[in-house]
Specification:
Length: 446
Amino acid sequence: MNVSVDGRALPRLAESWTWEGERRLRLKLRSGVVFHDGTPLTASVAVEAIRRTIEDPGYKALYPSLGDVTAISPAGDLQLVLELSRPSAFLAEELEFPLALGSGTIGTGPFRLVKRQESEAVLERFDRYYLGTPKIDQIVIRPFETLRIAWASLLRGDVDMVNDVPPEAVDFIRNDDIQVIWYPRWFQFLIAFNSQRPPFTSPAVRHALNIAVDREALIANVLQGQGRPSTGPFWPQHWAYDKSAVPYRFDPGLAATLLDGAGLRLGTASGGSHLAPARARFTCILPADFALLERIGLEVQKQLFDIGVDVRFELLPAEEFDARMRQGRFEAALVDMISGPTLARPHLFWAFPRREGLHAFGYENAEASRLFEVLRRSTNEAATRSALGRLQRVMLEDPPALFLAWNQRARAVSSRFRLPSESERDPLLTIRQWTENSGRPPLSTQ
C-alpha cells in the first residue's frame, strides 16, 4: 500500500482491500507484478514477506498495528487475509512497507540494486516494473562528508541531485541550471515535555508555554519562511482533521497570567543570585550536530525568556540522547518528530503514558487516551471525524509538548531533468518518470 497526503491508504501492490467485520482485513493483490529476480508476486509470496516483516522488532515499533496480526493466509493466487487480535483501523495505512525476498535486496520497485559499497550504491532500471519502464537507465548514490561538498559537486555538474538542502542554503545553490523543489514533510519540530516532572505536570503550564511562542516569527527567522505553524500532534491535511478547532494565538500576556495562576511568579525559580529572575528554569536536551535544531532552540529560548522562563539546552551524542529519552531522564527534549500523515503516528507517542520505547513522555489524559482508542478501533468515517475533532480540542487545552512548526524539505535537481508537476510530493518518489529536457545521451543520474 501507499499513503496519500491526506492520510488515506492508496493502492500499490495491493489494488484493493476490504474490512470483513472488525478483525479481518482482506487484500487483493495487483496482477502482473514480478520481483527483480523474476519471481511473480502471489498471495503465498506476500504472506511470507509480511510474516518476516512482522517478526522484525524495528518494524513493529514503527507500525504497531502489525502486532495485532495473529494470522495471515492466502485466499487464492492474488488474495490474502489478515486476522487480528483486536480492532485495528490503522492497519491498512501501516501496510506501507516494501515487500522483499530473501535478505531484502530483491524488491518490486522501478530500480534494482546491482552494487552496494561504502563509496556508492548503484541501481539499474527494472524493465518489468508493473507501472511502466522507468525513463532513467541508472541511479548512482554517493555519500559526501559535508553538505557543502555535495552542493559544490552539484554546481559543477558532477552530480544531478542533492538530497536535502537546508533553508539557508537554497539561495546559494539556486540558479538557471538547478531547480529547487520544496515539499512538506510529515515531521514537526516540537519540544516534548516530560509530563511526569514539574513544572510540566501542570496542564496550565504546558498550555501557557504554547501561547508564549510566536511561531510565525520562528518560521520566518529560522526556517526562511519554509514551514507552517503547528499547534498539535495531528497532520493538518488529514482527511478527518477538524479545521474549526481554533489553534493557539500568540499571547505572551495571557501566558504570564496562566503561569502566575500556576504558582510560577517572576523571581520564584531558584538557581543562584548570578542568574536573572525567572518564573521557571528547565533543561532541554537535543541531539548534537543538528545545527537547525540548535537555531530553533535559540529562537524559542529568546521568546520564552521574554515571559520569564529560562531554558537551558544540553547537547548530547545521538546514542545518549536516545537512551535518555527512552529512560525518561529528561525534563524536555527538542525533536523533529514524525506526526503524519496518518493518525497512527501521534498514537505512537501520546496515546498512553509510561510505556517503553516511543511512549517516552509520560503524558496522561484519560479523555485523550479514550479518544485515541476510538480512532484506533473505528473504521467508520463519521466516528473518526467526530473523535478526532474532540481529541484536537482536548490536546489544545492539555498539550503534551510545545508544538512549533511543520517543516519542509528541499531537493536540488539539475535543470536538465524535467520532473512531473506534482505539488506537495517528494520529487524523489517520481524519479522513474523524470525525462530529459534536451537531446542528450541516455539518462543516468547520481
